[in-house]
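pasting for the record
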Amino acid sequence: MPKSRSLFKSSSYRRKIGEKNRTNNRKPCRIMCARTCIVFAVFSLLLSLCGTVGADSFLPVLPQGIIIEETCVSVSLTTPASTVFINVTEYDPQQIVKNITLEFLEPVAYVSFTLDVLNDRPSYEGIPRNETVLQYYTISFLTDLADKITSVTMVFVVEKAAAQERDEEVTLVLYQYDGGKIEECPAEKFEEDDAFVYFKTETEGLSYVAVTQVLMPAPWWLVVAIIAMAALMAVIGIYVYRRVKLANLRKMVKT
């Protein structure tokens, strides 16, 4: 009998220890499951937000083969900031974009952008195709607060070489993609040296198409026509002035 009681006590003790271990093992599993669910929920929310913004502001996917060069720049901030400055030349000194300044309604911790060099005109309505175009580019931003952008300032540097070969000037035209529409953004030329022309634009949005092209000189006949028109207007002005002056003299004589 004593032996059976000791065996019973021993088996009962082991059973209690086993149940306690199983209970303790369930706690980390529950915590892990809870963390996984939270991470999944946050990730799904971010995806849904990005999807909503992207549907309105992100450029449609380009066909394969049209992109000849791609540069991706990502900036992670240890301290979130409302103004983010990106010196693009530190990542790729050969790119058309020199630097970018982004301003947000509230601090952000992550910003990235992709710049693609294209070998052909992208099939977006409103983008010109003519013999004066030198190169097409697309610029797309990604951030955790895409809908909070208040200002995008970009400085472009355009090489003169291609235009100088034909004794022409080079210029930059920038288009913003928003809500499925392409709208031209003003790009101001603010500096020039022997090799490059610098442009600056301030706008807001996530996606852009940049076009470099040459300024074709006006045809000789157009220049002649403008000069002739100016001369004709001058002659007409002198004639009208003399007629008015003569009429005034006649009135004075009569009185």
